[in-house]
Amino acid sequence: MLANSIGACFAMHTLQNCNIEKALFISPVLDMERLILDMMSWAKVTEKELCSKGEIATDFGETLSWRYLCFVRDNPVKWSVPTEILYGERGTLVSYRYRALIDNPI
């Protein structure tokens, strides 16, 4: 399987129970909850505020969604596919610390 950016997150969620031999992720979003919380922090939006409003548009072009944050929290990914990850040297959106979420890197 080959996936890029947010596609890696969606692929992991959708295919986590499938028999996949190997995966290659390019600049993947591996922790969607962390990314949403980071974006909330950048936009100075609290969980209480997001919960009460449901959706909040940000100055950086993303819309924060309480429903989506709850979905991510209620549906954790368990990924055990041998996975290689390629990150760009100057990537700013996805932290290298998320690599630890892959159980069996090769």
Key terms:
4 helices, 106 residues, alpha/beta, 3-stranded parallel beta sheet, two-stranded antiparallel sheet
Structural overview:
- By secondary structure, the protein is of the alpha/beta class.
- The protein has one domain.
- The chain is built from four helices and five strands; from the N terminus they run βαβααββαβ.
- The strands form two sheets. It has a three-stranded parallel sheet with strand order 1-2-5. It has a two-stranded antiparallel sheet with strand order 3-4.
- A hairpin with a 5-residue loop joins strand 3 and strand 4.
Biggest sheet layout: 3 strands, parallel
Which radius of gyration do the C-alpha atoms yield?
15 Å
Q: Uncertain regions: pLDDT < 50 for 5+ in a row?
A: 100-106
Helix content: 25-40%
Give the CA-CA distance, first to last residue: 14 Å
Number of domains: 1
Topology:
Elements: E1 2-4, H1 6-15, E2 23-26, H2 32-42, H3 47-53, E3 55-57, E4 63-65, H4 66-74, E5 83-86
Give a short synopsis of this structure:
The chain is 35% helix and 16% strand.
